Structure formats: C-alpha cells, structure tokens
Amino acid sequence: MVSEKMYQLGSNRSAIRELFEYGKMRAEIVGKENVYDFSLGNPALPPPQAVEDALIDLLKNEPAIAVHGYTSAQGDAGVRAAIANYLNQTYQTNFHKDNFYMTCGAAASLTICLRAIIEKEDDEVIVIAPFFPEYRLFAEAAGGKVIIVPPDMQHFQIHMEKLAEMITARTKAVIINSPNNPSGAVYSVETITALCKLLNKKSKENGRPIVLISDEPYREIVYDGLDVPYLTKYYANTVVCYSFSKSLSLPGERIGYILVPDEMEESGKVYAAVCGAGRVMGYVCAPSLFQKVVGRCIGQTSDIETYKRNRDLLYDGLRTIGYRCVKPQGAFYLFLKALEPDAAAFCEMGKKYDLLMVPGDSFGCPGYVRLSYCVDGEMIRRSLTAFQKLWNEYLKMK
Amino acid sequence: MVSEKMYQLGSNRSAIRELFEYGKMRAEIVGKENVYDFSLGNPALPPPQAVEDALIDLLKNEPAIAVHGYTSAQGDAGVRAAIANYLNQTYQTNFHKDNFYMTCGAAASLTICLRAIIEKEDDEVIVIAPFFPEYRLFAEAAGGKVIIVPPDMQHFQIHMEKLAEMITARTKAVIINSPNNPSGAVYSVETITALCKLLNKKSKENGRPIVLISDEPYREIVYDGLDVPYLTKYYANTVVCYSFSKSLSLPGERIGYILVPDEMEESGKVYAAVCGAGRVMGYVCAPSLFQKVVGRCIGQTSDIETYKRNRDLLYDGLRTIGYRCVKPQGAFYLFLKALEPDAAAFCEMGKKYDLLMVPGDSFGCPGYVRLSYCVDGEMIRRSLTAFQKLWNEYLKMK
C-alpha cells in the first residue's frame, strides 16, 4: 500500500521524542518540578524583542497582500540582500543577494542541498561523529550513502587521520556542524585549516571537488568570546546551511537559508540545482512573513547569556560531583561520559531519578549522553541533587 | 558537480514566471495600467480580517515560546482537532485530529503524499488534463511515472473512457483537482460517482487499491452556490491534499494539510508513511504561528464575491466579443479557446496588446490559454478593449 521505507521511518519515533513523551507522563505522576528533562533541543528563551516588534510592524503597517504573498522561489530579494550585507560586515566576506536561497529551516536547507549535489547512487556523504542523527536519513533520501568518521573522544574536534582514510573517489560531500550538536564543541581554526587542506588535496586527487556542507544553526550561540571561523573563507567549495531557529528562538517557524558562494566551482550551476531541488520537493518559497522578519532582525539573537549561565551551572555542578565531560563552547548541549560503557543503560538508570538524557549511540558516539541545557536554570539547579544520587548509585556498585 | 536533473529544473524557469517578469518589464515602458497581466495565480485579495485579528492576538496574548516553538511533526493537536470539527460539521464526515498531518502548503502536501505511497520505480500516477504542470515533477521526484489522461474538451470534466483505458496494474494513484486549475471546472457529483465506481472496479481487478489524491486548494472558491463533493464520502482510498493559500489568501505562508481518512485501507500505515516522507524531506513541522492562525480561522475565506464579479466581468466581456470558453464554476481561472491552433503563437500575438496569457500546452491542453482573474477588477475592464483588438487582428487574417 505504501513505501515500506517511509512507513518504517514514520512509525519509528525518534528516541528523543519518546523520552519527551515519557517526561510528560512522569510529570503527571511526580509533578513537573521533579522531572529533569534534558532531552529536547527546543529553545527555552523567547525571541528577542526585535522579532515581536518586526512582526507587529509588518502586520500593522505593510500591505497584507505583500506580507503574506508568494515571494520568488529564491526568497525576497531585499531580505537576501540584508543577510548578505550582515555577513559581509561581520565576516569580511563578499556575498550578494544571489548567493542566497531562503528555506524552511535547517532540515530543508540540508535536504535541498543534498538533493541538489548528489549525482548518482554511489555518491558518498561523510559525516563526523558525533552528528545529528537525521543527517543519515536526509543523505539517504537524496540517494547518497553515508560514511561515518568516528569521534575524536579527546576534544570532539575532527579525527583527521580517520577522515583522510575514509575519503574516496566517490566522496561527494562532507557535512560538519560547529558549534556541534551534541558535543557543544566548536571547531578551532586549526581544525578547519587542516580539514580544508585535506579536502583540497583529495578534491585534486579525485578530479572533482568535495563539497563541504556547513550546517550551522548554532553559529551565534557561543561562549567566552569564541570565534566560529566562517567556512567559505577557508574552502571555496563550501555550502552553508543556516537556520534562524536557535539564534532567534523561532524553531517552529521554519526559516533559514542556503548560501552558495561565488568562489565555488560552477557556482551558478550549484545554485540552479538548489532551486531545482527545492522545486521538486515542494518548497515553493520560505514562509513569507518570517522571511521579512529575519530580514529586519538579522544580527539579533535571543539572550545567549542565559544559555551561558545554564552551561556554567550544569558543567560546574557535574564536574564537582565527579562526572567527566568536555566543557561546551557553543550550542546548548553538554556531552557527558556515561558511568558505564552502555549509555542506554546509564540513561535508564537516570530515569530512576527522573533525569532524562539521550544516549549518544544515535549520534554515532556510544558511551556518552547528551544533555540539552536550553531549559529553565532552576531545573538545572534542582537536578544536581538527582545527578549526585545517580553518581552514588554507581559508586555503590563498584 | 551537481545533479543534472536538478540543475535543469532549476535553470528552466517556468513559462508563467517568465511571463510575469516580462510583464514587469513592459510596465516600466508603457505604464503599469496598460499591461494586462493574467499570468499568475497569486490571490489579489487580502486575508479576511479574522486572520489579522488572530495574528495580533496570538502575538500579544500567548507566550512567544509556545507560539513560535516546534509543534509535533503532525502539527498542533488543537489545530488538527479544529479542522476535523469544521469538516465534520460542514460535510457530515467523521474525522478526528489523528487523520490530519499539517504541511507547508499544497505543494508539500502533494510531494509528501506521493513520496509516502509510491512503492517502486514503475508505479504510475495518473493526472487528468488540464492539470497543474508541477504534478509531473512531484510524481517523478517521488519515483513515479506520470500518465496523462487527455482532456474532456466539451465540459472539462473527466474523459472517463480514456481514463479507464489508461489504468493498469501499475496504477498507484490518480490525482484530481477540483475546482480546477486551469479550467475553472468543478467536477460534478456524476463525474465523481463515475470516477469512484471505476477506481473501485480497477482496484479490485488489480488486487491493490488505487489511491485517489484530491488536490483541493480551491475547495471554497466556487460560485453560484455550487457544491464541491467531499471525496472521502465517495471513495474510501482518498487522500486529501489541502492548502489555505487561496481560501485565506496566505500563499506565501505555506500552510495546509494532508488528510488520511480512517476508511482508507491500511489507514494507519499510510499516515505513518506520510510522517516518514515528511521527515526525510526535511519538513520538521508546518510553520507554527500560521498553524495556530488557521486553527482559529477555519471556515473563513477571503471575499469570494470579488472573484465572482471578476469572473462575470471577464467571462461576459470575452463572450460578447466572440471568444469561446466554458464558464468557470470555481477557482479563479478562465480557460479560453485560442483563436488559432497554436496557443503559444496566440499568446505571442496577445503580447502585442500587452495581454499576458499562459498557453495551455504545459497544462496538457493545447489550443487553450489560461487567464488568472485574481486581479484588480478595473484591469479586467480595461483589458477588454485589448481583447477586442486581438479579436479584430485575427478577424482581418481570415
């Protein structure tokens, strides 16, 4: 009756979604304040005031037909120009409006980009563990084959030797995600430089460019004044997949973009293929009101200080107890070493204390668990007692 | 470097889009008021006041995190329940919230639905001419093969004998669109009854159900008190693909739904496959603010009387001159018989008088042209002089 594959994908709920539902059920039994749900990457902060101001102004003062009407498939020209200007000022780049294709958020950016560039069945897409699990589905749905580079467990940068080994003549693209979900790591300039050197060398060997897909919904969410290198400046064949979901706390509104820089080989052809892929997948245009909103709010962010306070509270609290983890530099995830090799079993044990954590296995990194700290700070504070109890439980077992 | 197919699709602009750009260029030369652009199906009316009220109320009085946050992939449960209630009251159906999957508009509804149900390479999808040209791309992108039933030139209903001949064991789905773009026809109860009888018979012969995909963004845009039969009541294996783009004049906001009725064979499996297809294509959820808006405005429409006045003005005007066309019963298109067999040549001749019309060829119906009358009524009035001149031009040639 239906595609068996689509049926399987639609009926197997993601582990994260299962946990979230479990948390709601537990909250009814023990009370919402006694469940410590670190499962979902749903921003806990409202959008900045500029977003609400832009919405009201557009609705009250602009003609409704223009505000809610179709834009071109590429997106509103003024909005794309505003994004180009902002990036040029911030990163000393040379983009113009026609480098941008507005999308319905990061997932759409990735699926459209992959559909555009994958040419044939055996094209390989390399992902770097730990990685967002949907990458695999997106690449496979576009006809590609996913190759996973094992994690650099020390610093959660890129295991460059492994990557070098895994690039073949079939390698079409490498997806990176920095600041990273789930590790919270930000790839350093050294990492990026080494990566780009490798990709240039291998592209030359292959006689066709390897596309670097930079999935960066967390670009602005970084701490301690850290810089996130702008990829197109390091590697010409970079496509940037961006979303405003996290920076502006608009995850449900589905708004982002694909950036195809002029520097890219056959840049015009890549951009046209992006338009073609968006078209066949039914993405007529990105939501028009929110295109205009992000155009006006470009450069604004939600209150990142709150996420930083959460990070410090959780990281310091867990380290004081004795847990091991790399200090997150960006995004709003902390990647904790489980207290036993089986992360799923550790998460089950955590549930005893109503701590909801996501096993790292689906991110390609067994033995770790992901904690989303885009939550209420008070919940983090209360959760530390539960984390202490969990620690004691494992201590007793030794 | 890229998928050749996506590149082709992205670089060949649609004929309609080309015309629209041409119209803008002409407007700069001869003045906006002297260009009669009937090319685009972009609603010329603002959304009903209820939409603006709902937007302002949601933004002012509901928590921003909930308004702009992720909904479940299926869509907000309250919104889906509101849609079910409305349809049940209006059409005496028995839907519930879990029959609905919210989408980013009609194109997304169709691409997701096709991806969900197409099982293998040689699955055939039948479309009835005249038809919306993107159907072909959507079906092919989902892995299907498109079979075109030639038009019923008399009434623009369905050429039932031809359809019967073209259904094979490989037929997976039939897409219909009533009220129809581009003909303006509404399929009568007789047409629907005959269609469903045929589909039931053929499904039985095939040993697997043929899915009827009802693409109905124009459901509410009908004139003269006409009823549009509700398909699930006539044929169990119907999937409804709906959009609020036209009914609420929100084409750029990308909001619609897929309805999988309980009556359908393996209904739960079909619904799960829809969820799976949406997931792999990167449709995380439908835009959250507009989900809530349509939930509140369900049953409302833009001012359809205006479209009716436009229809009457254009139809009566053209008939008075001597043109031939079937009177549109719904949507906002009039399908005019060209004054020569080559519709593209007729459209070129029209340009001489700054009449912008779309040849019917891409809709699978040569010899006709589509006029979109979702335009300013005054423009229609002024255009009639140009249509008279065009008529005279052909008269001279005889």
Automatic annotation (TrEMBL), chains A, B:
<dbReference type="InterPro" id="IPR015421">
    <property type="entry name" value="PyrdxlP-dep_Trfase_major"/>
</dbReference>
<dbReference type="InterPro" id="IPR015422">
    <property type="entry name" value="PyrdxlP-dep_Trfase_small"/>
</dbReference>
<keyword id="KW-0032">Aminotransferase</keyword>
<dbReference type="InterPro" id="IPR004839">
    <property type="entry name" value="Aminotransferase_I/II_large"/>
</dbReference>
<dbReference type="GO" id="GO:0030170">
    <property type="term" value="F:pyridoxal phosphate binding"/>
</dbReference>
<keyword id="KW-0808">Transferase</keyword>
<dbReference type="InterPro" id="IPR015424">
    <property type="entry name" value="PyrdxlP-dep_Trfase"/>
</dbReference>
<feature type="domain" description="Aminotransferase class I/classII large">
    <location>
        <begin position="34"/>
        <end position="386"/>
    </location>
</feature>
<dbReference type="GO" id="GO:0008483">
    <property type="term" value="F:transaminase activity"/>
</dbReference>
<comment type="similarity">
    <text>Belongs to the class-I pyridoxal-phosphate-dependent aminotransferase family.</text>
</comment>
<dbReference type="InterPro" id="IPR004838">
    <property type="entry name" value="NHTrfase_class1_PyrdxlP-BS"/>
</dbReference>
<protein>
    <recommendedName>
        <fullName>Aminotransferase</fullName>
        <ecNumber>2.6.1.-</ecNumber>
    </recommendedName>
</protein>
<dbReference type="Pfam" id="PF00155">
    <property type="entry name" value="Aminotran_1_2"/>
</dbReference>
